[in-house]
Amino acid sequence: MVAPDDKHWLVRPRTIRRLWVWFGTVLAGLVLADAFVHGHPSFGLDGTFGFYAWYGLATCMAMVIIAKVLGTLLKRPDTYYDDGND
To answer: Phi and psi dihedrals of 21, rounded to 5?
Structure first.
């Protein structure tokens, strides 16, 4: 039986550290495997080493930046839903 003060295994710092190391190793291995796989690029840029890794990172960063900009443009003041009939 699990003691009530024990944390879930996914929120333990040791598990989080292990997952970061494991995922980083897998991602680095996949990028290195790109050197040994013969691709058939459709255009010149997608034939470069690690294209899908840096392209995925760049598009993810672009989506985060766009979301931040949209958040600032579309946000409402804290009193937006107050009806003012106090």
So the answer is: -65, -45
pLDDT at residue 79, as a whole number:
86
The Cα–Cα gap between 30 and 13 comes to: 26
Q: How do residues 33-65 score in pLDDT, each as one tens digit?
A: 999 998 899 998 999 999 999 999 999 999 999
Domain that includes residue 18, residue range: 13-74
Total domains present in the chain:
1
Q: How far, in Å, CA of 4 to CA of 43, rounded?
A: 57
Residue 45 belongs to a domain: yes
Closest CA relative to residue 9, chosen from 27, 26, 18: 18
What is the spatial distance between Cα 39 and Cα 33, in angstroms, rounded to a whole number? 11
* Torsion 73-79-81-84 (CA) sign: negative
**Its pTM surpasses 0.70:** no
pLDDT tier at 6 (50, 70, 90 boundaries)?
confident
